[in-house]
Amino acid sequence: MSPIESAVKLEVVDAPGQPHPTPELAELYRGLEVESLVPLWTEIGDLMPGAPDSSAVAHLWRWKHLLALAERTGDLVPVGRGGERRVLALANPGLGGRPFATPTLWAAIQYLKPFEDAPVHRHTQHAFRFVVEGEGVWTVVNGDPVAMRRGDFLPQAGWNWHGHHNVSSEPMAWIDGLDIPFARHVESTFFEFGPDEIEQRESPERSRSERLWAHPGLRPLTQLGPAAATPLLAYRWEHTDRALDEQLALEAEGYTATLEPGHAAIRYVNPTSGGDVMRTLRAEFHRLAPDTRTATRREVGSSVFQVFDGGGTVDVGGRRWDVERGDLFVVPSWQPFAAETAEGLDLFRFSDAPIIERLDLDRVEVEGTTP
Ligand code: GTQ
Ligand code: FE2
Asked: What residue ranges define each of the domains in the chain, with the CATH number in brackets?
């Protein structure tokens, strides 16, 4: 006999779809509990809902509160071996206090004080950094130091060594996105400590990965094989910003360039495949021109958004918030989302869509269209 006791607890209930409650039924349930068995008829509503019914809830985190608390951790909590990172994770109120923004996605604010190092390690979880304000930190990925500045998207695929170092006399905060909750659910994770010191302490303007890869439409002939994750370690703000501006300008000139009127959008892609930057994470940037409202959409899979610039109102699963720079919010699976703005709104978004699409579980419903 296993020393672990059965965790099954079954209640006899008088409800439609449930067997008639009798003392015999109660006794059957006790027998099922002892043998660690659960009948489908008590669980079917939860396990097979008519449409995705996320435990995660629509939720908003205000950047000014996150930043103030991150600054306070800078006073009180050292960064170094063991804890590894000074990171505060967004914990969705529907997910029981676990540090999960959604059932699949990790989102966190990370904070590094002047001249501090976050030590080198690697893990199988995929990660990226996105910078809403500040500069001065270089993230060193497999020995390649990559500058982090406002508006930059910095992917860092699983099992690459990485540490961060702040070379400036100012603190810096940024957000991390990872697939930690997904990896936890499928129990796939490995982790290793690296050397205690970051060996590549340079702070070059351009990383080696950008010198090799950041030339639109040009591929080095030494690098013709497909790569599962993007080899480009920095997607710079000047390119993102220009791409979005040009979409809106082309629309104004009468060409088809935007996703919907006033709504420019780009996806960050792997230049070896044109697909998502990493196997588990999709990242996009959306720009709404002034006086724009998006259609209401819902999709299978969850997303986290960060307001990069401007302001507006977002509707998520029946909640409605006015948002401003840095604010983060979650759109759970199959909950409707729309955004509107008078002044213009820039939104960074990441999601678990590559997982959902690879498993052919993707569905999208857009208001006003038939699915
Ligand atoms: O910067 O390496 O937010 O390993 C969570 C886990 C950041 C990181 C996080 C990590 C990191
Ligand atoms: Fe890490």
From this structure: 1-48 (no CATH), 59-213 (2.60.120.10), 237-366 (2.60.120.10)
Q: What DSSP element (H or E) covers 353?
A: helix 353-358
Q: Label the pairing between strands 172-178 and 127-130.
A: antiparallel
Candidates 79, 84, 172: which one to mutate for ligand 1, based on the most atoms within 8 Å of Cβ?
84
Atom number, ligand 1, closest to the C-alpha of residue 87: 3
The amino acid occupying position 190 is F
Q: What is the pLDDT of residues 50-93, one digit of tens each?
A: 999 999 999 999 999 999 999 999 999 999 988 899 999 999 99
Residue whose CB lies within 8 A of the most ligand 1 atoms, among 110, 126, 159, for a mutation test: 110
**Which two tokens mark 344?**
């213009």
Whose CA is closest to 197, among 118, 113, 289?
A: 118
- For residue 83, give the ligand nearest its CA: 1
Tell the residue number behind the tokens 């080899």, with chain if given: 231
The pairs formed by 314-318 with CB atoms below 8 angstroms and a separation of 24 or more are 314/338, 314/339, 314/340, 315/339, 316/58, 317/57, 317/58, 318/58
Q: Check if 110 has its Cβ closer than 6 Å to any atom of ligand 1.
A: yes
CA of 153 to the centre of ligand 1 (A): 15
C-beta 108 within 6 A of ligand 1: yes
CB 178 less than 6 A from any atom of ligand 1: yes
pLDDT in tens, 224-282: 999 999 999 999 999 999 999 999 999 999 999 999 999 999 999 999 999 999 999 99
* Amino acid making up residue 304: V
Give the β-pairing of 172-178 and 144-149. Answer: unpaired
